[in-house]
Design goal:
single chain; mainly beta; three-stranded antiparallel β-sheet; globular; disordered C terminus
Length: about 170
């Protein structure tokens, strides 16, 4: 995901800054929302959360299918100036913290997505083979390059709405 503009150079005009997402490691980009948004990934990359970071808001948007569909959620009755959205460093959690300011005071909001999906993703049916445009995926270490190793190279299907488990990592 990225915020920016289409053109030969980056500029800060708010009316031309939008939020984009790439599903193929930056080869192609799709505009997913007009305007500048702060964003974070959780649940092994399966969950994307974003909020407007140019004007005060009381809503976030989230997606379980790499931005194909977005759901709007009102997290509070008051508007805040969102400064950031964070989750734990490994990106596996479904709990996020939205922080910002309201009336010159700090505000923290916890967003917990853990109970939204009772169904857990399970393999191998809901998983596809990796897209060769995304990278090189090997099922065992290679003597020529021992650093490249992925034990179970699987990508989750975009049309399935389910929570990832610790056993299935999006790559």
């Amino acid at each position: 995901m990225a915020t920016g503009n289409v053109g030969h150079h980056l500029h800060a005009r708010q009316d031309e800054t939008n939020t984009y997402f790439s599903r193929d490691a930056g080869r192609t980009w799709e505009e997913i929302r007009k305007g500048s948004y702060i964003y974070e990934f959780g649940d092994h990359g399966a969950l994307m959360v974003m909020a407007n970071n140019r004007e005060a808001t009381n809503r976030i948007l989230y997606s379980w299918n790499e931005g194909l569909n977005w759901t709007e959620f009102q997290f509070w009755e008051h508007h805040i100036e969102v400064e950031n959205i964070i989750t734990e460093p490994s990106g596996t959690s479904q709990v996020f913290i939205v922080y910002g300011r309201r009336n010159d005071k700090g505000v923290l909001m916890q967003l917990n997505f853990e109970t939204l999906h009772e169904r857990r993703c399970s393999g191998p049916d809901p998983y596809l083979n990796p897209n060769p445009l995304v990278g090189i995926f090997l099922s065992e270490p290679q003597p020529s390059c021992p650093l490249i190793f992925v034990s179970e190279p699987q990508l989750s299907c975009l049309h399935l709405i389910c929570a990832q488990t610790p056993y299935f990592h999006r790559i």
